[in-house]
Specification:
Layout lengths: L5 E10 L2 E11 L4 E5 L6 H8 L7 E6 L8 H5 L2 E4 L11 H11 L5 H10 L13 H13 L5 E5 L7 H16 L3 E6 L2 H7 L2 E6 L2 E7 H7 L1 E8 L5 H5 L4 E7 L2 E7 L3 H7 L4 E7 L3 H18 L1
Parallel strand pairs: 3-7, 3-8, 5-6, 6-7
Antiparallel strand pairs: 1-2, 1-4, 8-9, 10-12, 10-13, 11-12
Pfam families: ABC_tran
Keywords: Antibiotic resistance, ATP-binding, Nucleotide-binding, Transport
Main location: membrane
Length: 303
């Protein structure tokens, strides 16, 4: 098995009496897009800063691209494309001047590469940074993260300020990076973009992972609303007894219920009757995300 692109063990970061991370175990495989989800204050940005050696851990271990960021930080950062959640740069430069300067720090980036990314994002490279809107400054940040074809992209809230069309173009860039063998570690509040781009999702709360799963697996285990239309009336009690089925109601020949997890038992029970139609409201990642948080809260209260 190849070494992970990102690996942390029992990672702890404290700020005085406050804890940013409480023992984070994280593993990101080479060539995957890993969505890192959590609300403000959950530890996402703290994790990213530790990976880049912008801050130091209180305890625990970190390895990125096979090396210790603390010992090999300068060499490591040349192999990484980083977009901070609060991308701030010198406003007196034009976008081209800034990107050329940053490219030279990495040993040089072809002008055609910068121009190509700018065209895709509809970015005017001749304008000064201070005259750009928040969305256009974010485009500059995206270009500087991708332009040198890094082995690892670390993106903190990358589509902040981008309009919906450009969000889709950004996701295309992410998929192209993955198809080219790059690894993408992407923190986000925008559930739809993670749902479209990520291979796996890690959900963080209070500095620790609540769960890690493939997006398809999260959907499979999620709660959905189901509506089944039969040719003849059915007995609701038969369906209410099925695993994962609750809130069953039957009106005429229509059954409605709540399904938590796999649909196998429900589908097999419905197949014993003549089914005219079936509707299943697929949950989006946001519903899944808050569902996990609700379960965590219930577990804490029960404890």
């Amino acid at each position: 098995m190849s070494e992970p692109a990102v690996h942390t063990e029992a990672l702890v970061k404290t700020y005085g009496r406050n804890r940013g991370l409480t023992g984070l175990d994280l593993r990101v495989e080479p060539g995957e897009v890993y969505g890192f989800l959590g609300p403000n204050g959950s530890g996402k940005s703290t994790t990213i800063r530790l990976l880049l050696d912008l801050i130091r851990p209180t305890s625990g271990h970190v390895r990125v691209l096979g090396v210790d960021p603390r010992r090999d930080g300068v060499a490591l950062r040349r192999r990484i494309g980083y977009l901070a959640g609060d991308f701030v740069v010198n406003g007196r430069q034009t976008a081209r001047e800034l990107l050329t300067y940053l490219g030279n720090l990495r040993g040089g980036v072809p002008r055609a590469r910068i121009d190509g990314l700018a065209d895709r994002l509809d970015l005017d490279l001749g304008r000064r940074i201070r005259g750009l809107s928040k969305g256009n400054r974010q485009k500059v940040g995206v270009v500087q993260a991708f332009m040198h074809d890094p082995e690892l992209l670390v993106l903190d809230e990358p589509t902040s300020g981008l309009d919906p069309f450009l969000q889709q173009e950004f996701l295309t860039l992410v998929r192209e990076a993955r198809d080219g063998g790059r690894t993408v570690f992407m923190s986000s509040h925008v559930m739809s973009e993670v749902q479209q781009a990520a291979d796996r999702v890690g959900i963080i709360r209070d500095g620790r992972l609540v769960t890690v799963a493939r997006v398809e697996d999260l959907r499979e285990r999620a709660v959905r609303q189901v509506e089944i239309h039969f040719a003849d009336p059915v007995d609701g009690a038969q369906f209410a007894a099925l695993p994962g089925v609750s809130e069953v109601s039957v009106v005429g020949t229509t059954l409605r219920c709540r399904l938590d997890g796999r649909a196998d038992a429900l589908v097999k029970a419905a197949a014993a009757h003549t089914v005219v139609g079936l509707l299943s409201a697929e949950p989006d990642l946001e519903q899944i995300f808050f569902g996990y948080y609700s379960r965590e809260e219930q577990a804490r209260v029960a404890a």
